[in-house]
Every structure is written in structure tokens, then in C-alpha cells.
Amino acid sequence: MLDLQTRRSWMTACAAFACAGASVLAASPALAAADGTITLEIYKAGFIVGGTGGSGTLTFQGKTYPLTLGGVSLGATIGASKAELVGEVSNLKNAADIAGIYSAGQAGVAVAGGAKVAELKNSKGVVIKVQGKQVGLEFSLDLTGLQINLKK
User: Fold this and answer.
1) DSSP letters spanning 54-92
2) Domain ranges (residues) in the chain
């Protein structure tokens, strides 16, 4: 059996460890803070082969940058839709990093309570997390392959 002094030392160490763990967890959201915000208006249409287009804005370090959107999808694309999405952008070092072709990140694309939710990532590591509404009839919710560029 452990003596009283050893048990107290052990309990103090465990309490300190628990407090340290709680501090790290509390700091996590700050570490994952967004670098900017984004709005996207995406139009999709097609039958088997689909097209995507639209526009948006990136707000980064107090400046607003206009965006253009495009892309082509193959597969189960039937119908037409318009999505209005807003969200956060992470891992931006400069505004030009937003440009690129995006693929589905951890969350992918889903419909939750009638809202469209997506997490996308480009080759530079920029992560876009957006949500919003979609109107129209289209059976493909996939935003993978979305090309985003800074408007010139």
C-alpha cells in the first residue's frame, strides 16, 4: 500500500496533468482560428457531364478580393442548382493561396437540415469550411473539382 505522502503526491501530479490537458483543449479553437471569410454563389447544371460556375468574395486581412469559380464534373450530375454558401478559410499565408482546385476534406459535402455543408481543401493546404442553402433540382452535391481563382 502507498503511504499518505505518496498518495498526496500522486493526486497532486494527476490534478496538474488534468489542468494542463484542459488548458490545451481550451486553446485548440484559437489555434484553429480562421484566417479569413468567404462567400460563394455557385451554379451547377448538367446531364451526366456537368458544369460549375459562379463568383464569390474572400475577406482576408481587412481586404476583400473578388473570386471566380468554375469546374467540370462527370458522373451522376442531373439537373440544375444554385448554392449560396458562407464560411471560413484557414491556412492562408496570402490572398493568392485561395486559388486552386479543391477536393473534399474531412467532412466532405453533406445536407444537414436542408443546408449544404462542405469542407474543401486545395493543394496549398488552404481549407474552406462553408455552409448555406441550395435551391433547384440536382442530385449531385459534390463540390470536388471546384476551381477558385482571384478575379483579375
Assistant:
1) EEEEEEETTEEEEEEEEEEEEEEEEEEEEEEEEEEEES-
2) 1-32, 36-150
